[in-house]
Amino acid sequence: MHDPSVSAVISMDAAPCHKITSIRLDDASIIRRSAEVEQERATALSDLLHENYFSPSGLPDGPYDVFLSVRDNRLRFEIGSAQLDSSAEIILPLAPFRSIIKDYFLVCETYFDVVKTGDPYRIEAVDMGRRGIHNEGSELLKSLLEGKITMDFDTARRLFTLICVLHIK
């Protein structure tokens, strides 16, 4: 789980048994990030660590340390805890996410452009579309992890944001 190209290490001190208390992102594959994307990443990381429910099947109770990466066109969750001798890995294909991530990026670009206009009605309309696509990606993540990791919807939303950030090329 240790890689010199890793950034975004964030931790919290106390945690219950079904919680992520440390999450790291493998930023090695990311070429560029706008200020808006960087803000979304920071907010998702902070919110995730502040409140989440994360319970991997077949693993001892946490708290959990998670390393999230995209390698070989697959999404990888490396999960560690004080109770584990080594990290466990859960791998998902990225193909089911491609269309949703593409749509999400397009709507986010539109949203950031509309925010600059200051028109509250257009901002609200585009933001509703953005949240709808984000929710769709979150539900997809939960369904693909069914039987592997149980999480609440807010945790899935924050992880989907981080998956999108890792998907930037």
Describe the structure.
With 169 residues, the protein is of the alpha+beta class. It has one domain. Helices cover 44% and strands 24% of the residues. The chain is built from 4 helices and 7 strands; from the N terminus they run ββαββββααβα. It has helices at residues 35-50, 98-117, 120-144, 153-166, and strands spanning 6-11, 20-26, 54-56, 64-71, 74-81, 88-93, 149-151. It has a 5-stranded mixed sheet, covered by helices on one side. It has a two-stranded antiparallel sheet with strand order 3-7. Strand 1 and strand 2 (20-26) form a beta hairpin. It is elongated, with a radius of gyration of 16 Å. Residues 1-15 have low confidence and may be disordered.
